[in-house]
Amino acid sequence: MSNAIESARNIGPVTGAALRRVGVATVAALEQMGWEEAWLRLCQSNPGSGYLHLLCGYALLGAIENIDWLRLPEERKQAAKRVKREIQRDLRNRA
Predict the structure, then answer these.
(1) Of the candidates 54, 71, 51, which has an alpha carbon nearest to the alpha carbon of residue 9?
(2) Residue 31's domain spans which residues?
(3) What mean pLDDT is predicted for residues 32-54?
(4) CATH number where 18 lies
């Protein structure tokens, strides 16, 4: 898929615009970069924003897997929780 990032499941216009600002303009770019790196970039680009919220990670993961974030299997949610802890650690180390 190389459609605009907003065409991905779970990605609306606000998150789509934020993803574009960090270099993710298409679904293919998100797939290539990976949801973990995209999430890290979102959080780094605006540390005071709500992007570190776990739902953002779920949305990105679901976008790549083409599944509604509410239907993510528990093991994928646990993966997102681990990534969130890593991002928090990274942001603290940069401060």
Answers:
(1) 71
(2) 5-94
(3) 90
(4) 1.10.150.20
